[in-house]
């Protein structure tokens, strides 16, 4: 198979794997009452050193600000986040994770791990480690590209 054919096949395989992972995660998030986008917002909030502004969240997630407003509204109704006034500017609102949100994040992480376990079940532990190493090599800023194993 030529590298052009191989690249096209690989692109199709990666797209299919991504769709299957999203479906598996969605099935596990549904009982928690959280959408994948809301879960992503919670994970983004968790990575922030301090409560961000809505505009900061939009930039971090690479979405339009009105999308963040909808996500925050839904998560606020869920009790997972709260809007808090900024200590230095009355015009600024910060988004904080609540205790309920922290608990929900634990459940979301387990749902995600469960979806990945399901998807990767056909692979041995060694194959899963190899896949992880190959995918890590493709992360932005990674200097080491995967080497060919001659397969």
TrEMBL record:
Xref: InterPro entries: HTH_MarR-typ, MarR/SlyA-like, Tscrpt_reg_MarR-type_CS, WH-like_DNA-bd_sf, WH_DNA-bd_sf
Protein name (record): MarR family transcriptional regulator
Pfam families associated with the record: MarR
GO molecular function, one term: DNA-binding transcription factor activity
The entry's keywords: DNA-binding, Transcription, Transcription regulation
Gene Ontology terms describing biological process: response to stress
Domain of life: Bacteria
Domain HTH marR-type residues, every copy: 7-140
């Amino acid at each position: 198979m030529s590298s052009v054919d191989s690249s096209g096949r690989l692109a199709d395989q990666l797209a299919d794997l991504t769709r299957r992972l999203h479906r598996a995660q969605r099935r596990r998030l549904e009982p928690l009452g959280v959408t994948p986008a809301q879960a992503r917002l919670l994970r983004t909030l968790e990575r922030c050193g301090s409560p961000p502004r809505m505009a900061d969240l939009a930039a971090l997630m690479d979405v339009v600000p009105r999308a963040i407003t909808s996500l925050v509204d839904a998560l606020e109704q869920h009790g997972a986040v709260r809007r808090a006034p900024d200590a230095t500017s009355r015009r600024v609102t910060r988004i904080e994770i609540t205790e309920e949100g922290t608990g929900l994040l634990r459940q979301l992480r387990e749902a995600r791990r469960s979806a990945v376990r399901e998807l990767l079940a056909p692979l041995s532990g060694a194959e899963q480690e190899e896949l992880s190493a190959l995918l890590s090599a493709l992360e932005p800023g990674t200097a080491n590209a995967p080497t060919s194993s001659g397969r």
